[in-house]
Amino acid sequence: MAHGAPGSTEEIEPFYTRIRRGRPPSAEQLGDLVRRYEAIGGISPLTERTRAQVDGLAALLEAAEPGRYVVAYGAKHTEPSVERAAADLANRGVSAMVGIVLTPHRSSRGSGEYLDRAAEAIGATRPELPFVRVDEWFDALGLPELLARRVLAALAEADLRTEGVSTVLFSAHSLPESVRAAGDPYPDQVERSAELVAKAADLDAAAVPWRVVWQSAGRTDQQWLGPDLLGTLERLGAERCRSVVVCPVGFVSDHLEILYDLDIEARARAGSSGLAFARTESLNDDPEFLAILAAVVQGAAGRAER
Fold this sequence. Notes:
47% of the residues lie in helices and 10% in strands. It is of the alpha/beta class and 306 residues long. The chain has a domain of 137 residues: Rossmann fold (3-Layer(aba) Sandwich). It is globular, with a radius of gyration of 20 Å.
């Protein structure tokens, strides 16, 4: 399961309305979102990237255990919806179902919503069908090491690994601060992700400072999780930091929050703050990443059959 993205300019307004839980955006809000999509080529590549991930995962599972798995894709805000995909699978006579969301961390407002919607659709279709939820997989075997290699590659490629002046920023999508007060595990899991990747990259031993930042907060009156990425870039510039590498540890695909919020907006803010800027390569359908996901799914499927 994944977020989904509009497939054309005409689909942006209804897509934005669904994200806003049925509240149409203002003309200003819509215009700003259209401008962002135009800046990355008109539409997001998220659907294409997700399809490649789904197809690659299916191929790996089929190669490992022929005939055992059927893999389907459901989106939160576009078609095929999570509900339709879950119901279609249930109607195919499968013996159990595994739900995995293409976001590594558990959140009541993120992965939890996807999984709850899938569970409801399965219950309405085949209430006896076992359903195993993969609530989080940020610490899956091999994932921190895979991300660590991307961090080190970004540091090396841009010649940024200079003791005491370069900083690695691990970013994830911000949520309202109220999730922390409610005990949502998301903020702590993102912090733990950063710790695992930093350890795998040996950043502390190499005297490369790192921290967690939050990006892409909603435009609302609520207080959102911080520190904010853009504000952090300004502060690092004022502290005479020379350069930053951003590792978007909360995302697994190229999409608007990567290609615009980081590659355009954050890069520009870094430049105006006197910082060199680099970003780690997205996971997308990297075969090593898909092998990690396949192992997670296989482990969940084993639990479903006990």
